[in-house]
Amino acid sequence: MGKNNIALDEVRGREKHVGRKSSGQDKDEGAMDKAKGRMKEAAGAVTGDKDKKSEGRSDQRKGNFKDKKGKAKDLLK
Fold it and tell me: What is the pTM assigned to this prediction?
């Protein structure tokens, strides 16, 4: 069944990009990571957990990177 679906996609002009994300997916993931990081940082600040706070900052940096990666992909289209 899976083989037929791939052939059908190829006939319709759609190719499967294995392992690649679109610029929109990168930007969406970046936004989610930034939001998750802000929540972790706030939770760490409220509870006094320095590790959780730094984990939140790390997630925000990771989100910024993914967002910039998505924007760079847009520029290269």
Answer: 0.70
